[in-house]
Amino acid sequence: MVIVGGKGLTDEVVSEVDRALVAHELIKVRAPGLDRHEREAAFKTLCERTGAAAVQSIGKVFVLYRKNPEGRKKPE
Question: By CB neighbour count within 10 A (0-12 exposed, 13-18 middle, 19+ buried), where does 60 fall?
Fold first, then answer.
């Protein structure tokens, strides 16, 4: 699980989500410090920047999926 902190959706958070998607394909992202509209915007932005599909958004948790075309492998 990746957590979006008080600084919001930074480049570091996007990079961590990308690495997690390479390793796991299906991940959860928590955004406890964002209000509803900020969470919706962050969820959309994460999908756009990582190429992931939005699976579900419940409360402060997003679920993202991105198929790894090379199969599962650990990030470098």
Answer: middle
The pTM score is: 0.83
Are the CB atoms for 47 and 21 separated by under 8 Å? no
The pLDDT tens digits for 34-73 are 889 999 999 999 999 999 999 999 999 999 999 987 765 5
| Res 75 pLDDT > 60 | no
| Count of domains forming the chain | 1
Cα–Cα distances (Å) from 2 to 32, 40, 66, 70, in that order, read 11, 16, 15, 23
DSSP conformational letter for 4: -
**Token representation of residue 48:** 């756009």
Residue ranges making up the domain that contains 12 = 2-65
CATH number at residue 15: 3.30.110.60
